[in-house]
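Good day; I would like, with your permission, to put a structural problem before you. What I wish to show you is a protein chain and, alongside it, a tokenised description of its three-dimensional fold. Thank you for your consideration; the sequence and its tokens are set out here:
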Amino acid sequence: MLSSTAKSSPHSTPDTTDFIRAECRATRYPDLCVQCLSTYSSTIQQSQKRLAQAALSVSLSRAQSVASFVSKMARMRGLRPTEYRAVKDCIDNMANAVDQLNQSVQELSRADQDFDWHVGNVESWVGAALTFENTCIDGFRNPMMDGNVKVAITKRVTDCAQVTSNALVLVHRFASSHEVGASSSEGTANLP
């Protein structure tokens, strides 16, 4: 996980922010991507691995924050039974998302050895986290649940899912760039 001191970007250059913007264009939510990751530009520099690590760290942080918020909502007085069930299901889903993202952050740091295995795990776990987040939102799609609880939770979880979606794309791009780099270096290794 990136440290909070890594967040500051007094030494960021136009090249590093241009790199982040260019990579974020491939995501589904490019403005959100740039907003979340530009504060890490001095750490990211022009490294796709560090970009993917930062994206995962931001996603994990958002998921932890949303999980905490949803847990507080469960203790709110006056919840109808259908709202309470949806909130409880969302708590479980967000806990699972946090677990998957936490594993992903740890696993990506091990990707220097047995790259395909570790990055494959990260891609699977981030995809699972995104599914858990979307499942939480699905629990509030019941038309009988219109109100402040639904709005507050779905807004936060949707934002979190968008950040996770962006992280997944950036991990895919990192994996793809590594495959291209590995195959081109393998091709030149056999030259006389």
User: Anything to note?
Assistant: Residues 62 and 160 are 6 Å apart (CA to CA). The helical segments are 14-24, 30-37, 41-44, 48-74, 81-108, 115-138, 148-189. The mean pLDDT is 88.
